[in-house]
Automatic annotation (TrEMBL):
SMART domains: ANK. It comes from the Eukaryota. ANK repeats lie at residues 23-55, 56-88, 89-121, 122-150. This is Uncharacterized protein. Keywords: ANK repeat, Repeat. It holds the Pfam family Ank_2. PROSITE patterns: ANK_REP_REGION (PS50297), ANK_REPEAT (PS50088).
Amino acid sequence: MEIFGSHIISSKATAKKMKKNYYGFTPLIKSSEYGHLDVVKYLISVGANKEAKDNIGYTPLIYASANGYLEVVKYLISVGANKEARGMFEYTPLIKASKEGQLEIVKYLISIGANKEAKTYFGETSLQIASDNVHNEVVEYLISVGANKN
């Protein structure tokens, strides 16, 4: 990924000309997924689409949330990324962070008003997903901020 990121910066390619790969990944999606904040900032500065979706509908914010990259999440939100974006199975950034046990991301998303009662395609909430995946700290936090236990 470092070579990938270095290539982008050294070539000064415009983000609008960067194509998706076979899986629908854009440079911004991959940089967000791996927590490369400097590359994310650069790509946004040259016009990368902060709402780009891969083939399963995941956005850069969903990937950063799932993988625990709080600074990337905060930056994407600061430039207007949709905190309620929906990907595969209708997962939001909060649902995906809850599924992966990313407590700090969950706390941040709740603090900026993410919908803690949003449901997946299967009708599951962040609380149910965290519970199913035995992320007890996330479960306790969601209950403490009033997530519906029923």
